[in-house]
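Z., the sequence and structure:
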Amino acid sequence: MNGQTNGSTNGAPPGGRRHPGHGDDADRSAWLRDIVDALGGDPRGSPDPDPADAKVEAAVPLSVLMRDNPELRRPIIIGCLRAGQVGNLISTSKSYKTYLILDLAISMSEGSEWLGRFGLSGGRVLLVDLELQPPDIARAKGTRLDALGERIHVMSFRGRNATIEHVERHLLAQPAGRYELVVIDPLYKCYPEKFDENSNADMTNLYRRFERIAERMAARW
């Protein structure tokens, strides 16, 4: 708090603005903003806003939108996922989802079909593993991985802080367009504190952050 919590007897916050009482609403809002700034940010503890989110987006004519977006974004998993989109693989517990995701990563790095059905764009993959120990990840390698080890990168967060705030910070530090596909496994390990997976609002906020990460990391569409 910069040592500014004492020495004020005139009803003014550290910024020096006097309480507006029942005066103008604009003055009252400015007074509250001074207090929030002095305390170091939003007292509700919300995440730092994305500077891009602060922009006021102007409405554009449909003709301009059509002109600037003549084609759909390129497919990553053909028929399922396009560049900048977020997908979710859901199944029951202990149903080998991690192995399925690893097979997707290998197939993507090869540029081959996944499950003998889904065409893939092919490219470098980043696997963000929040659960397995590094030896367990390395043990899963086989003949295919031996040849593709340089095209699959791994971030292991086992035993470390791995909430969405930490994962997001690491991912946004990556050069845009470096990875064709980013996999985070498992989802529940990156839940923030006091997160309720049965809350629509909490899940919406979490996926909004995933969408922001996807948009930022995909340099080409």
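The two ends are 44 Å apart (CA to CA). The longest strand covers residues 125-129.

Let me know what you think.
H.
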